[in-house]
Amino acid sequence: MRWFWPSGLTGRVALVLILALITVQLLSLPFYLRQQTSEATELYQHSTLQRINHIVKLFEQLNATQRRDLLPALNSPSLSMDAYYQLTQAESKATDEPSLAATLSTQLDRNVIVKHAKQDGSMLLDMFPSQQRIAIWVPLKDNSWLRFSTSSSLPSSGWIMHISAQIIMLCIAVIILAIVAARQLTRPIRTFAAAAERLGTDVNAEPIEEKGSTELRKATRAFNTMQQRLQSYVEDRTKMLAAISHDLRTSLTRLRLRTEFIEDEQQQRKAEHDLEDMEAMLASTLTFARDDAGQEKLVNLDLAKLIHTLCDDMEDLEKDVIYQGPEALTCLGRPTALKRAISNVIINAVNYGKKAKVTLSQDEENINIQVEDDGPGIPAEQIEKVFEPFVRLDQARNRSTGGTGLGLSITRSVIRSHGGDVTLKNHHKSGLVVTLALPKVS
């Protein structure tokens, strides 16, 4: 039965509501049919009895010739009649419908005989008992008889079609109502899911509008409060690091001035080199903590053109970089942040290997940017560690290439802010393969 059970919450709620409402309808259907049948039968019998009563009173005042002339005009599909002067032995036997005979006898003030009329098609009669024809024998004052032929209730075929149409229309209305109700009930969950996904890629996203039921407004308020606290945390962290950076830059400036008074030129160059490293680390740290990717707006950009430009720039610097992929590929992203993230990976590839191969492709879910180098690679147990800030693997990377160990940390932060991720693996021959996966936005 797993195929019958929808995977989405909207489908499940709709199915439960539909089954519940239809079950209630089916349980109440016998009572409804019984009531409708009783009311319809009572109405039909009442009108038929009134008509018979009027015809009998009219025929009491007519002679035989007038009766024969009037019979064709009074016959109808629901009530036909004939005039007899004597009854056969079979027709004069006891009545088949005592209750109906008693009612007619009381209304007409005479003894009435009611018998089942002979008809063909017994299967149809078994299926629709109300199609059973009955004969009503009414005596007149001149000892003649009128025979009326009618059904015991309403004609079943039309009545059943009418009831069936009502039930079908009711079921359609129930299904539509259940689907609409299910969508309304699950809309808050879809809203929260979209807001949570948006928060994962943009901490400065607009808060959710507080509306709906009391519980929904309370949950929305809690979500907005959480988002506001995250924004405040990021902002406070950035301000703190900016203040620290300012104070450290002041100290570094003083140290740089003091290095001019070092008489040993070799020691002076070493000190200046250390100060330059410290200043570069400080700038990288501030950039990483500021997380500009979260401040930049999402726009439609040509990712293929951006990567092609980065590869051309590296070729202008006489670096061996090859691009493979489409000439145009549009995605939703933050241009400056993506440029920094992809550039970090390409620079690492050309710094730690002789060449880099950049491949852009897409599958059903992601847009993939793959950067391969022919360097020494990274030990498998150290692959996850290189994403930590300031981590450099001396055995795998040459210290003389420079850098602060923040490149891959920044790259992962940027790609994850777009809803994607970064993975590393060693090539089966040599070198490292870095894959940046960005989700496709339909």
TrEMBL record:
Domain (HAMP) spans: 183-235
Q: What class of enzyme is it?
A: transferase
The residue ranges of the Histidine kinase domain are 243-442
Where does this polypeptide localize?
Answer: Cell inner membrane
Report if keyword Mitochondrion is assigned: no
Q: Keywords on this record? A: ATP-binding, Cell inner membrane, Cell membrane, Kinase, Membrane, Nucleotide-binding, Phosphoprotein, Transferase, Transmembrane, Transmembrane helix, Two-component regulatory system
- Protein's membrane topology: Multi-pass membrane protein
Could you tell me the superkingdom of the organism this chain comes from?
Answer: Bacteria
Transmembrane ranges?
Answer: 159-182
According to its UniProt record, the EC number is 2.7.13.3
Does Membrane count among this protein's keywords?
yes
Q: Give me the reactions it catalyses.
A: ATP + protein L-histidine = ADP + protein N-phospho-L-histidine
Q: PROSITE patterns, alphabetically?
A: HAMP (PS50885), HIS_KIN (PS50109)
| Name listed for the protein in its UniProt record | histidine kinase
Organism encoding this protein? Thalassotalea psychrophila
